Amino acid sequence: MRRHLLILGPPLAWLLLLVAAPLGILGLIAFAEAGPGVPPFIPPLAWEGGPVWQGSSESLATLLADSYYLEAFLRSLLTAFVTAALCLLLAYPMALGIAGARPGWRLPLLLLVLLPFWTGFLPRLGAWIGLFRDGGWVNGMLGLLGIGPLRLLYTEAALHAGMVHAYLPFAVLPLATALLRRDLALEEAAADLGATPFTVFRSVTLPLSLPAAASAFLLVFIPAAGEFVIPDLLGPPEALLVGRVLWSEFFQNRDWPLAAALALALLVLLLPPILLFQRLGRRA
Amino acid sequence: MALLRTEGLSKRFGQTLALDGLDLDVRPGEFLALLGGSGSGKSTLLRLVAGFEAPDAGRILLEGRDLAGLPPHARPVSMMFQSYALFPHLSVFDNVAYGLRREGVARAEIARRVAEGLALVGLEGTAGRKPHQLSGGQRQRVALIRALVKRPRLLMLDEPLAALDAGLRERTGLELRALQRRTGAGFVMVTHDQGEALALADRIAVLEGGRLAQCGTPAELYERPASRFVARFLGAANILEGRVATDGLVEAAGCRLALPHDRPAGADLAVALRPERIRLLPGTPPATNAATGRLRDLAYRGDGWMALVALPGGTELRVALPVDAAPPAPGAQLVLGWPAEALVPLAA
């Protein structure tokens, strides 16, 4: 038992210090009342000869009452859904190609998928801005064809281009791993029983890869729901996603309790997909 | 016409030549065993016939029709995989029905034929189960009936019994042959187990290094092996290397062998001698077809003893002794003898 504590101790302390404690503080702040000072809220628990509760659930009530926040949540979930779906559509053929490539080609192809990670995230978004802005590369090319200039930057399309670009590798990796490990004898058996290559894919390859596809989808969906930077830099100004709303409540309105309540609500919303992802992982 | 004929079939994987100009005939309705060690090319042959690999040279004819260029799904042959390759996401029913659905057979007809097939192998109650809910023996039978339900004229089986427990293997093998007789389909079974091949097959094709070493009935191969390889592979025969003397007798391993047929004097000759054809003789050895030696080792085989007897020249003979005789003590001098017809001259 003591030896177990020695092994489990450091990671447990790490989790306690960096996950549980901040989450607890976040929970406390969510139930605080905003007020002047640094930090800008009145602590919900005070000590006046004994513990005194002086918090309020006003911030949580605001979240539920004001449709502005509800809309931000729905928009975020929708954006994350579209991003995850687009990533899955692009990643599946890529993963299939990598898994079907000759053994010597597979690792270089996987490295190519990861290549964007070798550059900083913000410079890559800067490149998208350079491509999409009114006098940018894409409009320059369209101009040669006599089209445009079109408004591309700060649109939903630019937002999704940036999101898909940033999250695609997260979808390719689990799919490629699963497709590489698949039993090719099953596909040979299907062909032997008279299935054309398309039917083999539809009736054997695809259904057997669905758990991996669901994993890939959730691996994109979960972080994309809270994404803040990409919508801010590429998306339309009216695209009020949770990440941006949270940012403005925290830094512009200095309403920490409301920002904390938003963060907690997002976590609660994402719990079901996170638990689903873990269950899928256990089955695979 | 042969059901399946290969002509000069060759296949190379990188540096290794898996098949080297193989000529083989499978007759309609026969049970042919492809016997060979690992790397002999037997599984490669199945993969070429099924269309999973393309040959580098040679032709594959099914009932006279060249299969070249036909993709696997268009080839009228069925295959049972060593791993069974059952679809894990489909029920037993859907696994067996898979091939019929691809043929566009009517729904009611599919249900009838799947039920009939499952009944044939005693799996009536399992139609709704998934493969992982079945025992190893049940999975094996689902794989078999899945391949057979399309009524192929040629079924290829890749080590169909290898994954079964020893106790189940013999019974399942006999069921396999009964099913083959009943359906009338030609069976080509790959195996590395000589006992399996001898017990089940109408004919055995022994492959060695991607070539056909010998093809014939089990009795022909066992009693008249054509080469040292076949003699050793089937039943682990003793091989005596010698020369034909002027009197027509063969001198080998210090013995004088009288063969049923005379050979030209001076020729080198290898002779196979089965362990179970050698007997212990009382008294002094006769002048021919006998030897004296010292018992080196003795192994109990259940149905008898396998004795290793060292002859004066250094050659060791494997001798099968009946179980009812009291075994000789190690180091004992033994007198061995055998009939002339037990000696099989080998061509290679």
Architecture overview:
The complex is a heterodimer of chains A (284) and B (348). Chain A is mostly helical and 284 residues long. Chain A has one domain (75-283): Orthogonal Bundle (MetI-like fold). Chain A is 74% helix and 4% strand. Chain A contains 12 helices and 4 strands; from the N terminus they run αββββααααααααααα. In chain A, the strands form 2 sheets. A two-stranded antiparallel ribbon of chain A has the order 1-2. In chain A, 31% of the residues are buried. With 348 residues, chain B is an alpha+beta fold. Chain B has 2 domains: 4-229, Rossmann fold; 236-346, Beta Barrel (OB fold (Dihydrolipoamide Acetyltransferase, E2P)), CATH 2.40.50. Chain B is 24% helix and 33% strand. Chain B contains 8 helices and 20 strands. In chain B, the strands form 4 sheets. A 6-stranded mixed β-sheet of chain B has the order 6-7-8-3-9-10, sandwiched between helices. In chain B, strands 13-12-11-14-20 form a 5-stranded antiparallel β-sheet. In chain B, strands 15-19-16-17-18 form a 5-stranded antiparallel β-sheet, with no helix packed on it. The radius of gyration of chain B is 24 Å and the shape is elongated. Classes of the chains: A mainly alpha (284), B alpha+beta (348). The A-B interface holds A 183, 185-186, 188-197, 199-200, 203-204, 207-208 and B 50-52, 71-73, 75, 77-79, 81, 83, 85, 87-89, 98-99, 102-103, 146-147, 150. Chain A: Keywords: Cell membrane, Membrane, Transmembrane, Transmembrane helix, Transport. Chain A: It comes from Belnapia rosea. Chain A: It is a multi-pass membrane protein. Chain A: The chain crosses the membrane at residues 12-32, 72-95, 107-131, 208-230, 256-277. Chain A: Residues 73-277 form the ABC transmembrane type-1 domain.
